[in-house]
Amino acid sequence: MSLLEKIVRGLPVSPDIQQALTSPDLLRKHALYLRLPHLLAPAYGPVTPQQLEQLSAYGYLYFRFLVEFDQVLDQAGHQPLSAAATGRIFEFCAVYEAAIRGLSALFPEADPFWNHFAQCKREYAGSNRQEKTLAATRPAFTAAMFEELAAGKSAACYAMVHALDSLSGRSQPSTPLLTCLRHVHIGLQCLDDVDDFVQDLHHRQYTFAHYGVISENGINSTLRPGKGT
H helices within 77-207, ranges in order? Predict the structure, then answer.
């Protein structure tokens, strides 16, 4: 049994959430985030296999909490949260707490990792606020705006570089790796915006893909699904 499975089995959450956290389909979908410590490790010095496994498990749990929280924020913008959705996010708080406890065991309170992690979270939060503002105001959407937004929405992932920096004793952030992750996530956001085009439109989100279709075809940007064209 993997470390992730052991942690999930010990969480005070419903069997449905335990299953969701270890679903083979979702683990394959999020394989990048599970494998990221191992993919980056060759660029570093002495980081043990145990530390890499811990980073993988606790980083993934933190990532899944963010995904769930983001979905709740999107739903809350369109309709009141149901009792089930409210209960689910409270259960996911246990996932968040497990992730932080695990990271705290790896990084003492004074470790530089935590300052870098806080900056990543601020960048992530800022991009989420910007995304909600764009959905409400629907301005012209430039490529530069898209890249900034896509990079910021993935900022929590950059913490993995800072984590490996600390564990390997590197005093300066690995800028080339951070730049690489930024470009990877901009590309992934492009794919997501295309794959989720109809779903995002239904939820009244506003993406670079939507703006491209609107501007190229002269469509009224205030239109919503079901109101005609």
Answer: 83-106, 113-137, 143-153, 155-168, 175-195, 197-202
